[in-house]
Amino acid sequence: MRDKRVSDIIKLLISLAACFGAGFIGSLFTRAAIPGWYVLLEKPSFTPPNWLFAPVWFLLYILMGISVFLVWRKGIKVFHVREGLIIFIIQLVLNTLWSYAFFGLKSPLWGLVVIVPLWTAILLTMINFYRVSRTASFLLIPYILWVSYATALNFSIYLLNP
Fold this sequence. Notes:
The chain is mainly α. It has helices at 2-40, 50-72, 79-104, 108-132, 134-138, 141-160.
């Protein structure tokens, strides 16, 4: 029993570290572009203030980490667990890649090219996680809602900045 608890704590910490690690890498591109390039873009009226992004992403990465932990703890030998973890990793890579595409390349177009498959990968992750843990799937609802909002924002910025 004690070994299981220690194992769960390690898995939770690794899950959270992976999510925050992806966020940290993405933030390297984001932070550099905000004061110059991003500030100068035309943005739609529904653009949130810049200060809101960090706390929202902090919360989303916590929810993502807990979600992936809940699936991983069911056992890597279970097919749906392995499949879900692979899809989760793909969406996490796409999450980081979006920051590079949009902010690093300073390209709303490339941001759109990445955010659509990202949204799809999140949905596939949720569907797959649902087979293993409904709670894990439900924890990703705020994430897919935020990425849906970000997709609309990205698209609007693309249209406003030809």
